[in-house]
Design goal:
elongated, mainly alpha, 4 helices, 122 residues, 79% helix
Length: 122
């Protein structure tokens, strides 16, 4: 994995998550900032998928369980689209909180994927 991509994705997802949770607790409906930030996180996750496919081919093999890594990655990729759909259907404050929680969860999941890829020994 590319360390810069990992930390950038963690930072973006964390910021989007914090903004979403705070905005939702302030009773704000999902807006372009939250929905766009979630879409940006999804774009970063798609880049992460490409990196995860290419990295082993160029000699950057994971040290942990590859199946566990892919389960985390696929789950993380599926979360933002469902959260955005919920945010577009339910225009209430809880949809905004949900978008924020998804951002925070993805930040944690990306960190865990980094640990699986670089730190663990299978």
């Amino acid at each position: 994995m590319i360390i810069g991509l990992t930390w950038t994705l963690i930072a973006i997802a964390g910021v989007v998550g914090l903004i979403g949770v705070v905005a939702g607790l302030l009773k704000m409906a999902p807006n372009d900032l939250i929905l766009g930030g979630t879409a940006l996180v999804e774009l970063g996750l798609i880049v992460q998928v490409v990196v995860a496919i290419v990295a082993p081919l160029v000699g950057n093999d994971p040290t942990g369980d590859l199946l566990e890594f892919w389960i985390y990655l696929v789950t993380a990729v599926l979360m933002p689209p469902f959260a955005v759909i919920w945010g577009l259907v339910d225009r209430g404050r809880w949809a905004t909180v949900t978008l924020g929680v998804v951002g925070l969860a993805i930040a944690i999941m990306v960190y865990r994927m980094h640990v699986i890829w670089t730190v663990q020994v299978a």
